Amino acid sequence: MSTHPIIADLSQRYTAKRYDANKRVSPQDLDVIYEAMRLSASSINSQPWKFIVIESDEAKQRMHDTFANKHQFNQPHIKAASHIILFAHNPSYTRDDYAKVVDKGIEDGRTAPEQREQAFGGYAFAELNTDENGNNATWTKAQTYIALGNTLHVLARLGIDSTTMEGVDSELIGELFKDELGGYQCDVALAIGYHHKEEDYNAQLPKSRLAREQVLTVL
């Protein structure tokens, strides 16, 4: 077994089941988390996401209310966790959306201004994943999960607990956070904070994963 710090981080992380409502993630750690999310990888550097952070009591109440119809097992995390992050994707990513990426690349010196049109070559991959109605949600949602995975690793590095929640009501979130989402769709959220030492049963259970030879083939 490797003793590398990365392996130690991932061996210790788990899905928190109960949070300590008295503990909050520090502003310094939040700054690292937010920047790491921004730096996440995505196909053609598309970045077809919005990250909406739920921090205030008012916002937490709004998020709490999205569990009115289903997935109530995740509802306790909303007010007890330090923060909730909505990972939202653009269901209809367009050439105009990609233009923002291209122009930022020019601003950052990654792309020469005279190469702007050629830089749109990558958009062909988005087109391959777009149906006749302009919907490419399957593709953009997949990019958002890359950002989610990156965030989970960063949280593990920082010693912050987390709970990935696909058990959310996407439709109701879309209604109650319509202004913030701006047409984007949230199918997964992430609770972050610090687990409750007495009530989080999952914290004491041993790590369990399939053996390496069952999932990894080296050719």
SSE ordering: HHEHHEHHHHEHHEH
Sketch the major β-sheet: 4 strands, antiparallel
Characterize the overall form: globular
The helix/strand class is alpha+beta
Helical stretch tally: 11
- Low-pLDDT ranges: none
Placed side by side, the strands forming the largest sheet appear as 1-2-4-3
Mean model confidence by pLDDT? 97
Q: Distance between termini?
A: 21 Å
- Helix percentage range: 40-55%
Rounded to an integer in angstroms, the radius of gyration calculated over CA atoms is: 19 Å
Strand content: 5-15%
Strand tally, please? 4
Fold and architecture overview:
This protein is of the alpha+beta class and 219 residues long. Helix content is 43%, strand content 12%. The chain has 11 helices and 4 strands, in the order ααβααβααααβααβα. A 4-stranded antiparallel sheet has the order 1-2-4-3, with helices on both faces. It is globular.
Features:
219 residues, alpha+beta, four-stranded antiparallel β-sheet, 43% helix, globular
Give the topology, please.
Blueprint: H1 5-12, H2 27-38, E1 49-54, H3 57-65, H4 75-80, E2 83-89, H5 95-107, H6 116-119, H7 123-128, H8 137-158, E3 161-165, H9 170-176, H10 178-181, E4 185-193, H11 212-215
Summarize the structure.
Helix content is 43%, strand content 12%. With 219 residues, the protein is α+β, with helices and mostly antiparallel strands.
